[in-house]
Amino acid sequence: MMAVTSYLRSLERSRLARARVDRPAVFTMCGREWDLLPDVFAPIYSPSTGAALEFLGLGEPHGLPRAGSFLEIGCGTGIIAVSAALAGCDRVVATDVNPAAVANAAANAARHGVGDRLTATHSDLFDQLDQRERFDVIFWSSNYVAAPAGYEYKNAHERAYVDPGYRTHRRFLAEAPSRLTAGGVILLHFSTRGDMAGLLRGAEENGQSLRVLRTAVIQEGDVSVEHMLIEVAGVSM
Ligand SMILES: C[S@@+](CC[C@H](N)C(=O)[O-])C[C@H]1O[C@@H](n2cnc3c(N)ncnc32)[C@H](O)[C@@H]1O
Predict the structure, then answer these.
(1) DSSP assignment of 140-201
(2) What distance in angstroms lies between residue 136's CA and the mean position of ligand 1's atoms?
(3) How far apart are CA 98 and CA 110, in angstroms?
(4) Residues 113-151: pLDDT tens digits?
(5) For ligand 1, mutation pick of 56, 71, 73 (most atoms within 8 Å of CB)
């Protein structure tokens, strides 16, 4: 059996989720309906979105009241970013490197009436964001499975699952601090499918520390996976 950390296993999960004939155009989660476009990471075929919503306290229709600004890197369908806006964040930016995900997040923001507070932007991490914009919370539910550095994505959907050479994780760690408000927090949803040693090395390169804030053990098919919400701390700019 392939290890839980195997990138081949994750690519197979991507292939199956993308190609399912019963993949719906609309799904229900947290008591609400959400558009699901082709080629976008489907929260219904992986427990990570549900775990992230719980970690952030956004899992209930009337979650914790919030305020301030929220940047979601890798928004997928936009369910987390839209839930943050519905929970009270007054400015939400949802980015994804997959253009279909950006369209999906915009559709779900309109569906739930928060299009005035949520901007969906096509961006590779922070590249297309206004350099002057700062956020109180930066959150990424990452493609935490490490693939070999030379692996080339076969389609945009695979970007939700694996990170070749952990390049995107290292860039995220290096670039996120400069986008924070004073007192802002960087949060990463990670799991034991991920390369924790690689993440720690990346954090050390930037003089950062990682603090696990929440954990949840979830049975995923034949394996038990620990999901965690990690705060990246240590560099203020
Ligand atoms: C595990 S999925 C999470 C999607 C969504 N947040 C959710 O929880 O349902 C990871 C997301 O990160 C996006 N992603 C991967 N690399 C990225 C990058 N360099 N810049 C922006 N988004 C990226 C993927 O396209 C994917 O939508």
Answers:
(1) EE---EEE-TT---SSGGGGGTEEETTHHHHHHHHHGGGGEEEEEEEEEEEETTS-HHHHHH
(2) 20
(3) 19
(4) 999 999 999 999 999 999 999 999 999 999 999 999 999
(5) 73
Percentage of residues of the chain with pLDDT beyond 70 = 96
pLDDT of residue 67: 82
Distance 112 CA to ligand 1 centre (A): 21
Q: Ligand 1 within 6 A of 76 CB?
A: yes
Give pLDDT, residue 66.
75
| Structural domains of the chain ordered from first start | 7-233 (3.40.50.150)
